Queue: 4 jobs
Job 1
Amino acid sequence: MKTIILPSDDAAATLQTVTGWVSAKGHFYGVDERLARYDGSTHRPCSECGALIDKNAYCTPCHEKKELQKYEKMPRKKWDGEAMLYSDVADKYFYSDEDLQGYLEWNGEPASSLRLIICEPVYATEIEIADVYEDSLPTDDDYRVPRELVDAFEELNTVLREEKIILSWTPGKFAVDTEGM
Ligand SMILES: [Zn+2]
């Protein structure tokens, strides 16, 4: 037989003193000294250069250096003037040579300083009846989608397949070869 214990019974609980790490913010971390110290701290040394930085921030000079190295490793290609370009440095997309030249002139910078990346088009993809009407279609195995709906989707999908409609652009894997730009 199972022993019965009521909340009011002495056996239900005992008052004990516990030891553990408490951060400067007053949070209890038990044996986890590392987490408690992290919680109670405001800054940390950068793992690369040792500079003191806000504990939730990244080290700006080291981050910048890493971004530059990443960009320098990218394969280079001449820009065809058609694809959009993206610059992380300027946090900006350029949709034409005129647009780019205007920016460079205004800011008095050479194209090479923008770390330009050639973008890839994002096309409108074909759509499936099942995906669009997922929540409304009956789950009945014998159910057949009405013919006119199937035809309408097929007509739209044919256009999407053949016209290759561009919805947006996303930075691709090639950097712009800016020589002579
Ligand atoms: Zn650093």
Job 2
Amino acid sequence: MEIKFCTTCGSPTLLKIPPEDDHVRSVCSVCGLVHYNNPKMVVGCIPQWQGKILLCKRNIEPRSGKWTLPAGYLENGESVQAGAVRETREEALADVRIINPYRLFNILFVDQIYFMFRAAMTSDQFGPTTESSEVRLFDEKDIPWDKIAFEVIRQTLEHYFSDRKKGRYPFRIFDLA
Ligand SMILES: [Zn+2]
């Protein structure tokens, strides 16, 4: 996304490649400040409880009404693990303990990185929130595969159930393009 106005002096920016750089940047036409626009990281988890996993029905666009895993943007000053725990509390009112890093997806066409953990719920408490109209534990056979909100979440779930059959959950990196 282009940054149209300087974040320091408010003047219009120009798109150009600064000296000794190799990417086009938004450069302030007055003070010369170079604005770097880098990918955003989304962190989340697969919360498990007694063989079931917790999904959230989205109450917000995009994909309102579809099911997803708790995940959201990492905040400044926050570790990826803490971000995944926080998002799970915010979206599902569930407390989790991180088990291991599980999947990293480079989603190049939207400049996002999804970092998904496996996590254990520390109790059977969960519930709806402003972001999730419904929160439910699912057995594998009941997963609403035709109503999953995002391809990255579908792949995370498919990998998880495939790995579960093998009893091993290696960390792996994929590109979505
Ligand atoms: Zn400026």
Job 3
Amino acid sequence: MIKGIKVMLIPNNKQKTKLFQFAGSARFAYNWALAKEQENYNSGGKFISDNDLRKEFTQLKKTDEFKWLNSISNNVTKQAIKDACISFKRFFKHQAKYPRFKTRKRNNPKFYQDNIKIQFNSTHVKFEGLSSSKKQNKQQLNWIRLAEYNRIPFGKDVKYINPRVSFDGLNWWVSIGIESEDSISNLSNSGIGVDLGIKDLAICSDINKPYKNINKTKRVKQLKKKLKRQQRQVSRKYDNLKESKVFEKGEKPKKTKNIIKLENKIRKTHHKLNGIRQNYIHQTTTNIIKRKPSFISIEDLNVSGMMKNKHLAKVVQEQCFYEFRRQLEYKTTRKGIKLRIISRFYPSSKTCHKCGYIKKDLNLSNREWVCPKCGCIIDRDFNASLNLRDCKEYKIVNG
Ligand SMILES: [Zn+2]
């Protein structure tokens, strides 16, 4: 099975410039190939193979106008042309919409690296062709520092799949796939029901202790406050800008240096918040998996439905339910644990786990489950997690 790993890069200024150049040429080559396919298609021609396009591209590089492309590693543009052909082919086969051109505004900078030539050591990654000189000291430009040491395995036997380099508006990242063998370990006989919620992130049926809602911690609250303040500042700056002079129709005010600075700060805060949330979800899902259940049951949450409710939408988005499920899905698959998805219409919180009585008019503010039939008193979410564990109607999403 292929495991994906993504690690942040710490390039120096020279390397940063090069990375943007590479991404720019990848976009250029992609658009060029797409335009060629389009032109050909509109005049009644059939699909042009990426081989033919690449030959034409090589000729293009010999002309004066496009000789700047020669300073870019060949593999970058080669793969971009391939990608354009693939997306055009998918449209041909009615598998995808008509491919769009990549623009600076819509698409994050991104390019491909050759999977044989890319190299890693414990601290750095080597890209191809950042330096045009073969001299040893100039070759150092090719080695970019990694933000996490020893995360990506290296050595003679390691094969990398589809390495990509991308920029998210703030940082550069390298992502690769690695073939890894699954370790199916001895699983325990029991399963775990997981009830996801707003008050706490998750309640598991095997331990009566919830995973807290990370958004209620002091650190996240502080960051959210900071974000709000920065957003207010920037919108005030925009207002001032709009009032400063009369703009003609279609004319947009040009961003001032201060606005750009502030927007970068906002991006950074967003990034921090995201990191904290993402990290917490990873810790939680890994923690559940580590207990080696034979199966995990979760409710099929109607996330898009909840997003329609204004009050819920923000909370749900912050809780990252979708990400939680995505992680559970791939982590259980790796360990050979079955992931059971239970219909969202199953009344997990309205049913008494002890006697099966269904209480129709359950009040959401009631944190405690008090059964009118058998009289048992139990935490409401814990009761729900037990019901999810024992529910016999489910869909298995892996294996
Ligand atoms: Zn009962």
Job 4
Amino acid sequence: MASADLRRLWKLHQIDVAIQGIRNRATHLDVGKKTAAEIESLTNQLATNPYKLFHAEQLDLELQQSSLDDKVRKFESELYSGKIVNPREVDGYQKELAILKKQKGDIDEKLLEIWEQMPPLKELADKLDATLAAKKKELVETQRKAQQVKAELEADFKKRSAERPILAKEQNPGLLAKYEAIRKTHDGIGMAEVVKKRQCGACGTLLPERTLQGCLDDRTMTCETCHRILYYTEGVV
Ligand SMILES: [Zn+2]
């Protein structure tokens, strides 16, 4: 069994590992950045999709078409009402009607072109709309979850941070100083457990016999590769 000093230090180390874990989780917490970027891209795609422009033009042309239809009907009913008998007047009406019908023909042609292009554009716009709506929903859910996890992490961090100084006071000062120095240069992790097959639990190095013997002799040993203080439990060494 490891010395009492090492066992106490191991408890402190476990708190440090937990704090480090909380920091890592907070750093990598999914707050929906990727989804927000996807939403921006979809919004841009929708803005530049010609469906809306074509649709506006279609409505405009349909309105013109209907107004021309009314005019043609009006001219025709007047022309054939029997009230217009003067040949010059009849000629004038017929010329006007021809102009109106030509205009209507042009609009009909344009509308046909638009109607042909509309279905695939509408299908794409609808698809983008649906994806955008789903992504917006996803973002709300991700942000809600992130808030929840953040609150949990903060509470855990507070608890561990309060426990740490109490445990630090109980440590052998020399050993604690060594541990803190290692932590500074080793991503906050200053200890490693000797795991089965006689490996350093942090870096996986196979520990030499003299290191293992040192552990058994209750001396403070470090891993030759990652330099962390080694902790061991009975039966492993
Ligand atoms: Zn190691």
